[in-house]
């Protein structure tokens, strides 16, 4: 397994990045409860060789980028700060999209200021906006790239057809989608990324912590190898395809070190096959369904209230 991956002809990073979203308050809102611990985790990640830190203007919102600048600026050479624009935060735990060109320009310029950067190495569209043709959102980012405000463009939460459309407008250096043992990425998208050698940043690589506690084959393999379930889950993602670049998040220095050790874990063919069949346990699936239902009811109640107002 390659330990590094190429984002551009002259830019390589390690195969395991760090997702900074957890370094916010509850509901990805405001500052983390222990700011100095959060700063220390970011600095330790860089010390341990992490070459890509993923953030977004929507995390906090804004406070996550500020925290990264506070902890790491001036950035060591070669460290990629990957941020995103195109989402809005109406409140804690709430997200909406805005992919209009004028919004993306304002968002990118504000991220540049908060991160104290002249140019953002990897700027990602956080999600396609169904009200804006993808070509318009990507075109806006391409203009920012031509102006030198962005070095490389990335897309999050896209399917293979959207990636193809975006590539007709601008060079796309990376894709970022949810990918973990429980939630697989669309096979056509993975195949396209592999064919075109486009790194695929995997968000929720630990299923937001669910994979930290091992069930089924994951737990069995972790126990038999004396590894933590999270290490096996990350090793599976790394071995699953040469283009994966998991970005696990943690607020714990011990988990950070544990996660980075996954680079040294190699799984054999039988272990990979057993993990391929791993599914979310039934209890967890039911709890997710119930949470989804509660969320939908809250959205519905809000929509009804705003119609009455
Ligand atoms: N593009 C998008 O739309 C999008 C969406 C969501 C997330 N993301 C990105 O993806 C990154 C990763 O997602 P995430 O951080 O939410 O989820 P994740 O990496 O799947 O899981 C993080 C959770 O796992 C726990 N954890 C981490 N290492 C562990 C270990 N070794 N053992 C046990 N538990 C462990 C953490 O708790 P502790 O703090 O206790 O370790 C935390 O609760 C985010 O930070 C963000 O940058 C992008």
Q: What would your notes on this structure say?
A:
By secondary structure, the chain is an alpha/beta fold. It has two domains: 4-278, NADP-dependent oxidoreductase domain (TIM Barrel, Alpha-Beta Barrel), CATH 3.20.20; 279-309. It contains eleven helices and twelve strands. It has an eight-stranded parallel beta sheet with strand order 3-4-5-8-9-10-11-12, covered by helices on one side. Strand 3, helix 1 (35-47) and strand 4 (52-54) form a beta-alpha-beta unit. Helix 3 (101-114) crosses helix 4 (134-146). The model has no long low-confidence stretch (mean pLDDT 94). NADP nicotinamide-adenine-dinucleotide phosphate binds at residues 19-22, 54, 126, 156-157, 176, 203-209, 212, 228, 230, 247-252, 255, 258-259. The site of NADP nicotinamide-adenine-dinucleotide phosphate has 28 residues, from helix 9.
CATH superfamily of the largest domain: NADP-dependent oxidoreductase domain
Biggest sheet strand order reads 3-4-5-8-9-10-11-12
Return the structural class.
alpha/beta
Low-pLDDT stretches? none
Radius of gyration (Å):
19 Å
Helix content: 40-55%
Shape: globular
CATH fold descriptor of the largest domain? TIM Barrel
């Amino acid at each position: 397994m390659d330990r590094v991956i190429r984002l551009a002809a002259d830019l390589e990073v390690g195969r395991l990045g760090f997702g900074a979203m957890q370094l916010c308050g509850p509901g990805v809102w405001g500052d983390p409860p222990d700011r100095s611990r959060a700063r220390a985790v970011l600095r330790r990640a860089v010390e341990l060789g992490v070459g890509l830190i993923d953030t977004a203007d929507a995390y906090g919102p804004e406070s996550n980028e500020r925290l990264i600048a506070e902890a790491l600026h001036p950035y060591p050479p070669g460290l990629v700060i990957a941020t995103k624009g195109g989402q809005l935060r109406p409140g804690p735990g709430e997200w909406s999209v805005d992919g209009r060109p004028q919004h993306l320009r304002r968002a990118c310029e504000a991220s540049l200021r908060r991160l104290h950067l002249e140019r953002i190495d990897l700027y990602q569209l956080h999600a396609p906006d169904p009200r804006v043709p993808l070509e318009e959102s990507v075109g806006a980012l391409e203009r920012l790239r031509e102006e030198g405000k962005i070095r490389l463009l990335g897309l999050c939460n896209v399917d293979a057809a959207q990636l193809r459309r975006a590539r007709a407008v601008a060079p796309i250096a990376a894709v970022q989608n949810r990918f973990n043992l429980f939630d697989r990425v669309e096979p056509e998208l993975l195949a396209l990324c592999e064919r075109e050698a486009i790194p695929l940043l995997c968000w929720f690589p630990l299923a937001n912590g669910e994979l930290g506690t091992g069930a089924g084959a994951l737990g069995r393999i972790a126990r038999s190898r004396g590894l933590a379930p999270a290490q096996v889950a990350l090793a599976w993602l790394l071995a699953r395809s040469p283009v994966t670049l998991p970005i696990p998040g943690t607020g714990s220095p011990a988990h950070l070190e544990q996660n980075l050790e996954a680079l040294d874990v190699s799984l054999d063919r039988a272990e990979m096959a057993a993990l391929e069949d791993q599914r979310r346990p039934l209890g967890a699936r039911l709890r997710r369904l119930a949470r989804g239902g509660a969320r939908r009811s809250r959205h519905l109640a809000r929509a009804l209230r705003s119609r009455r107002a």
